[in-house]
Amino acid sequence: MRHEPAFRLEIYLFVLFAPLALWLGRSGVERAILLGSLLLVLIVEMINSAIEAVVDRASPERHELAGRAKDMGSAAVLLALVNVLACWLLILGPRLF
């Protein structure tokens, strides 16, 4: 957490939204989906950070494959964030609109 500003931000958002997930979910399944989608972002961000650390450790030189690996890790984080948005909108959207 100390070395990854993106992970730090995601932790802060988790601390903010986790209680909301537990409060707004009407059933155990809804709570699990809302909370689980938030946890998935943290998990994917940790994996992305691990990939970046290994790539940086393996070689400080720029390499096409290293760049692709980092880009795919970042894309996975983006997809996890899109998943949060989709889960929260699908569960809470009908109540709001």
UniProtKB/TrEMBL annotation:
The enzyme's E.C. designation: 2.7.1.107
One GO BP: phosphatidic acid biosynthetic process
GO cellular component labels: plasma membrane
Residues at the catalytic site: E45 (proton acceptor)
Localization per record: Cell inner membrane
Cofactor binding note from Swiss-Prot or TrEMBL: Mn(2+), Zn(2+), Cd(2+) and Co(2+) support activity to lesser extents.
Residues annotated as transmembrane: 7-26, 32-51, 72-91
Residues annotated as binding a divalent metal cation: E4, E52
Keyword check for Magnesium: yes
Enzyme class label: transferase
Annotated coiled-coil segments of the chain: none
Keywords tagged on the record: ATP-binding, Cell inner membrane, Cell membrane, Kinase, Lipid biosynthesis, Lipid metabolism, Magnesium, Membrane, Metal-binding, Nucleotide-binding, Phospholipid biosynthesis, Phospholipid metabolism, Transferase, Transmembrane, Transmembrane helix
Cofactor(s) the protein needs: Mg(2+)
Gene3D superfamilies from the UniProt entry: 1.10.287.3610
GO MF annotations, alphabetized: ATP binding; ATP-dependent diacylglycerol kinase activity; metal ion binding
Record-listed ATP binding positions: E4, E52, E61, R62, H63, K70, D71
Residue positions binding substrate: A6, F7, R8, L9, E10, R31, E45, S74
Record keyword Nucleotide-binding present: yes
Catalytic activity of the protein: a 1,2-diacyl-sn-glycerol + ATP = a 1,2-diacyl-sn-glycero-3-phosphate + ADP + H(+)
Cross-referenced Pfam families: DAGK_prokar (PF01219)
Membrane disposition: Multi-pass membrane protein
Similarity remark: Belongs to the bacterial diacylglycerol kinase family.
Biological role: Catalyzes the ATP-dependent phosphorylation of sn-l,2-diacylglycerol (DAG) to phosphatidic acid. Involved in the recycling of diacylglycerol produced as a by-product during membrane-derived oligosaccharide (MDO) biosynthesis.
Protein name stated in the entry: Diacylglycerol kinase
